[in-house]
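Side project, low priority. Logging it here so it doesn't get lost.
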Amino acid sequence: MNLADLLHASAERYAARRALTDVRSGRSLSYGQLAREAQRVAAFLKAQGVETGQRIGLLAPNDPAYVPAAFGLLAAGGCLVPLASNLTPTEIAEIVREVQLNGCLAWPGADAPPGAGHAVLEGGECANFTFAWLDRDARSPDEFYSLDPAFIRFTSGTTARSKGVVLSHTATAARVEASDRVLRFSEEDRILWVLPLAYHFAVTIVAYVRAGAHILLCPDTLPKAMVDAIRRLTPSVLYAAPLHFERMANLGPSERLSSIRVTLSTAAPISPAVMERFESVYGVPVGQAYGIIEAGLPCINLGTEGLPVTSVGRPVPGYDIAVLADDGTRLPPDELGEIGVRGDGLFSAYYAPWRRRELIMSNGWFLTGDLGLLDKAGALHLKGRKKTVIFVAGLKFFPEEVEDCINQFPGVKESRVFSRPHARVGEVPCAEVVLDPRHSDLEALKAHCARVLSTYKVPVEFTVVDAVPRTPSGKIRR
């Protein structure tokens, strides 16, 4: 199969229905127009000689043109390698080298990697997109081409060097189908979209297009602008990052967002304090999902099923989750261990260095590197990354626990907790905090942490910063 087939199926059913709207300009594309534009892009790329399985970068910002460009690239048989528009030339060059990109399709005026034989697409929504060959003859391992590759996505690189993750058309479609059994998107849904398309296209945008939903691209992600857009455009789905929910909640008392049926927080863990504050302000529970590039969305908690808000929910149909001990045995409920995932939506391989998934799996499980536990109701609770556990004099804890404590204090906008080596106790925790200068008291914050946390968890150093460092996909950089 090809994921572009999902677009063309929706175009046949909903040709006149709006598929995309740019909130700022009001410009819209119907499903019929979207499918035709994707076909134009595909024909353009094939005319340049793009062949099945070639790695083609897509460099474009959040704009309606991104969607037909992506589907057109897939329809042409290319393996889409997203190049986010906020990456530096050095970061783009590293991806080009790691993936051995054959070519690049770029937004007009983009600072694309240097290539040969620039061809320009004329007319239509993707007018003036350029295509250039970077290394036309570069070959992947032979087995790469047999995997039906659709995407090479890069992991967030929060704790180590990013890895190129190969996703097949079939596995991506399986991810979409699995998540939709819980989210239940339909042609009646309107989605307010505020996330980077380069990082979230593979499952969510494909899911919305498959359902025939209307995607509202909102380029202004300031909290007041987002709330105003929700009230004006009445979307039924809000899919955003924890930072968006936190900033919206911080606006204070408001009327209920009555049009919203589903909120989903993704890209990073969201604290219970933010979830509670958002619901108290807007009258809508915040759902969250366990998102992994290698596996999709294997767990979803919509916040409407009575599960603890601290959990990311039960496994969605088509996936199985286990919590495993160091020796690989499955742990009983409420015991902490490494999270393993299996299901039809798993990735196919890591690209560089090349490793097939089968060589990475442990007794049939993909080990995520995340630590957590399953409660007696089967809901998964994330506790932290295996590599970010902080050890103080033999006692261990997770930075997320301390961040939750800090973030609950009035005047704290966000925080990052990390360890620093110590000669006597091994490590000590330190904190970076972003404070509202009008409502902040650093000494009072320290006293709050000392009251709430065990002594060894209290940061020995608090540093006020303008912003905590984040990965391009929005996760706190560890």
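Brief comment: Residues 389-464 form a domain with the GMP Synthetase; Chain A, domain 3 fold (CATH 3.30.300.30).
Revisit when time allows.
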